[in-house]
């Protein structure tokens, strides 16, 4: 039976603007094609904070020029970001596979993820999105009831809540595609956050942390491995200090100890460890690899990367 992996793509694997995304995706597609050549079934998920911020601005600031303008909620912008990024990834991966003589369908599943309306995260927004604003623009956002933080010396940015992913709505569709040996892009940008109201799913004004959604997806498809492709080849302890040390293969217990000691950035590296540990502990013979997007092959051979097993 083929081994199954979930790959989470970070900012560097996608770039920010459309031209950057086109170039970055070409390289990222090579890593995905390597996994297919190695015989893995692959589900992919990805970041979206820069893109969803851009889409939100386009819809809600510049969109006002259109006579039929109505405000677009964050959940709709998340859905758009899944389509926008999925479209480029689908084609980039398809083309790379065809260049290697492999034909395989690549599909994006618009994926909703249920969140808890009472999640504490709704009281303290932390997810930073989109472009820098000046003080006037920041005040306008605040008047609309939106949260804005100041990054000293840089300007102001919109922040939204990042509730925990509870359940992936379209999981059966993702599993059906993987069972048919197809490549799936799912839960992009952490998934479209929705709240259950009887049979209705109401979009939430939030953006889910994509690493946590990647862990949920890996659990849901019963993956063997969670691969998180980020901007660093290996995670460090004592980052930026004289005794900085790169982490190679570590146990779950070691990973937990380093987390407790506060070695990992709370909005970048920590969720990757949380996702990895939850995924590994929820099953058997599972592992996680955190490395840069161009080091997948070496990481799978345990020649580089940070491996939790
Ligand atoms: N202990 C650590 N070791 C390595 N990088 C860390 C660590 N803690 C925080 N980081 C930061 O995390 C960043 C990667 O996270 P981020 O850019 O948010 O991820 P993503 O690739 O998911 O978009 C690195 O560039 C680094 O600055
Ligand atoms: N949704 C999400 O976590 O996006 P980023 O990785 O771009 O912050």
From TrEMBL:
Pathway: Metabolic intermediate metabolism; carbamoyl phosphate degradation; CO(2) and NH(3) from carbamoyl phosphate: step 1/1. It catalyses: hydrogencarbonate + NH4(+) + ATP = carbamoyl phosphate + ADP + H2O + H(+). InterPro entries: AceGlu_kinase-like_sf, Asp/Glu/Uridylate_kinase, Carb_kinase. It comes from Mediterraneibacter hominis. GO terms for cellular component: cytosol. Transmembrane segments: none annotated. This is Carbamate kinase. GO terms for molecular function: carbamate kinase activity. Gene3D superfamilies: Acetylglutamate kinase-like. Keywords: Kinase, Transferase. Residues 3-286 form the Aspartate/glutamate/uridylate kinase domain. The keyword Transferase applies. GO terms for biological process: L-arginine deiminase pathway. Belongs to the carbamate kinase family.
């Amino acid at each position: 039976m083929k081994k199954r992996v979930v790959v989470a793509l970070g900012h560097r694997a996608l770039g920010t603007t459309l031209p950057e995304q086109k170039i970055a995706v070409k390289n990222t597609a090579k890593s995905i094609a390597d996994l297919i050549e190695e015989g893995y079934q692959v589900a992919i998920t990805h970041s979206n904070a820069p893109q969803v911020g851009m889409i939100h601005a386009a819809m809600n600031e510049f969109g006002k020029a259109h006579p039929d303008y109505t405000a677009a909620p964050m959940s709709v912008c998340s859905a758009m970001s899944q389509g926008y990024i999925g479209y480029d990834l689908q084609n980039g991966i398809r083309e790379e596979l065809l260049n290697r003589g492999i034909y395989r369908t690549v599909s994006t599943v618009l994926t909703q993820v249920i969140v808890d309306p009472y999640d504490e995260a709704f009281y303290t927004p932390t997810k930073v999105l989109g472009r820098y604003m000046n003080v006037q623009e920041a005040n306008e956002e605040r008047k609309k009831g939106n949260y804005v933080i100041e990054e000293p010396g840089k300007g102001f940015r919109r922040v939204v809540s990042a509730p925990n992913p509870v359940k992936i709505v379209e999981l059966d569709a993702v599993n059906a595609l993987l069972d048919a040996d197809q490549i799936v892009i799912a839960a992009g940008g952490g998934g479209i956050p929705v709240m259950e109201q009887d049979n209705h799913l109401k979009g939430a004004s939030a953006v889910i942390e994509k690493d946590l959604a990647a862990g949920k997806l890996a659990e849901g498809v019963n993956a063997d491995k969670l691969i998180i492709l980020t901007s660093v080849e290996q995670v460090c302890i004592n980052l930026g200090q004289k005794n900085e040390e790169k982490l190679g293969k570590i146990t779950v217990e070691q990973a937990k100890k380093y987390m407790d000691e506060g070695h990992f950035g709370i909005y970048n590296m920590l969720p990757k460890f949380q996702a990895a540990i939850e995924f590994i502990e929820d099953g058997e013979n599972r592992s996680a690899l955190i490395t840069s997007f161009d080091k997948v092959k070496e990481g799978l051979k345990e020649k580089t990367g940070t491996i939790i097993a």
